[in-house]
């Protein structure tokens, strides 16, 4: 089954063609990062406008690279929640128009579900159930994936998402947007034990995260040093901050895995590209004899191939939408 998939929830306009949820025939991503960089973060209004400009070209290119015409597509999948509402609406309306005009079924896909599904594209043997950590710019969730379309959230962030904490802390260090990527690079040359940052826990919620105190503590540290005319060593600071975030993520995931008897662990979302998170999780999972599945780096961030994968399983489950489909900024998985 050929699925055409569309993603526009944040600052990437993406389209892909995916076969039977597992095989990428094409995957096109038009990134707006360079433009948002000027403002230090995603400007929603600009994101929506750029999606409008790019979407038809990106979809056309995805079909061309797959060597398929719209007639040969069996269904159209689109990210409809959660995300920036104006950005989501561009993809949803485009997909609705296309589905209606071409007489194809329309499959609405939840963004976090698709981040998890990125792993199905890279690991043919991966099937639910498993435990997933989804860490992105907007979300940090520990999720029991019971089946392709059945999820149970065990833990979540109480304030900032892990990627958001990386981006805001990186900004205070003078690093460009998207901060997480640059923090990872700068940290390669740093001493992760140079500074100590808090490893906050949430009372009564053993699998929840709280990153805002951690972020504030690095911002204050930089501010206080600046007041004294001191400059802190950037790579040590970044490496120490990264270590604190990764320690917390690993700690909660491993606890959840132990408590629920998870048989395998999956990472997903933009932050799963983080080199320290990948290597630490690898070590911990090896110690426990737990198989760990990581998305390849090109499928960690937002893309439409992952939407095509999850869309296939939503289609099989009969989760279809009509022309009244709306985009939703917030929606639990
Ligand atoms: O999944 P994603 O592309 O978009 C959302 O759905 O939010 O995630 C983007 C987030 C950003 O916060 C970015 O800084 C972070 O993922 N990120 C990283 C790395 N690469 C991307 N954070 C830490 N280390 C990285 N290597
Ligand atoms: Zn995302």
TrEMBL record:
It catalyses: L-threonylcarbamoyladenylate + adenosine(37) in tRNA = N(6)-L-threonylcarbamoyladenosine(37) in tRNA + AMP + H(+). GO terms for cellular component: cytoplasm. Keywords: Acyltransferase, Cytoplasm, Iron, Metal-binding, Transferase, tRNA processing. Its EC number is 2.3.1.234. Its cofactor is Fe(2+). Required for the formation of a threonylcarbamoyl group on adenosine at position 37 (t(6)A37) in tRNAs that read codons beginning with adenine. Is involved in the transfer of the threonylcarbamoyl moiety of threonylcarbamoyl-AMP (TC-AMP) to the N6 group of A37, together with TsaE and TsaB. TsaD likely plays a direct catalytic role in this reaction. PANTHER family: TRNA N6-ADENOSINE THREONYLCARBAMOYLTRANSFERASE, TRNA N6-ADENOSINE THREONYLCARBAMOYLTRANSFERASE, MITOCHONDRIAL. Belongs to the KAE1 / TsaD family. HAMAP family: TsaD. This is tRNA N6-adenosine threonylcarbamoyltransferase. It comes from Solibaculum mannosilyticum.
């Amino acid at each position: 089954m050929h699925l055409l998939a569309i993603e526009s929830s944040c600052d990437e306009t993406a389209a892909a063609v995916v076969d039977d949820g597992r095989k990428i025939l094409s995957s096109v991503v038009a990134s707006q990062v360079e433009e948002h960089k000027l403002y230090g973060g995603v400007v929603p209004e600009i994101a929506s406008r750029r999606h409008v400009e790019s979407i038809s070209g990106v979809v056309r290119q995805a079909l061309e690279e797959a060597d398929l015409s719209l007639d040969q597509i069996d269904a159209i999948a689109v990210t409809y929640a959660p995300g920036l509402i104006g950005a989501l609406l561009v993809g949803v309306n485009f997909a609705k128009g296309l589905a209606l005009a071409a007489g194809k079924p329309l499959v609405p896909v939840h963004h976090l579900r698709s981040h998890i599904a990125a792993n199905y594209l890279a690991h043919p043997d991966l099937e639910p159930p498993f435990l997933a950590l989804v860490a992105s710019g907007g979300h940090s969730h520990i999720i029991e994936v019971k089946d392709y379309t059945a999820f149970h959230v065990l833990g979540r962030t109480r304030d900032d998402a892990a990627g958001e904490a990386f981006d805001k802390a990186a900004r205070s260090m003078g690093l460009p947007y998207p901060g997480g990527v640059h923090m990872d690079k700068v940290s390669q040359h740093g001493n992760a034990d140079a500074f100590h940052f808090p490893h906050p826990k949430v009372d009564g919620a053993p699998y929840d995260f709280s990153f805002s105190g951690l972020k504030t503590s690095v911002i204050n540290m930089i501010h206080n040093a600046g007041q004294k005319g001191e400059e802190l060593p950037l790579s040590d600071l970044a490496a120490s901050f990264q270590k604190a975030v990764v320690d917390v993520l690993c700690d909660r995931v491993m606890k959840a895995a132990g408590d629920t008897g998870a048989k395998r662990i999956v990472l997903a979302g933009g932050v799963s590209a983080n080199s320290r998170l990948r290597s630490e999780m690898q070590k911990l999972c090896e110690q426990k004899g737990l198989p760990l599945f990581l998305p390849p780096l090109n499928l960690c961030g937002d893309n439409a191939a992952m939407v095509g994968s999850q869309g296939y399983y939503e289609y099989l489950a009969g989760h279809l939408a009509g022309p009244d489909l709306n985009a939703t900024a917030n929606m639990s998985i």
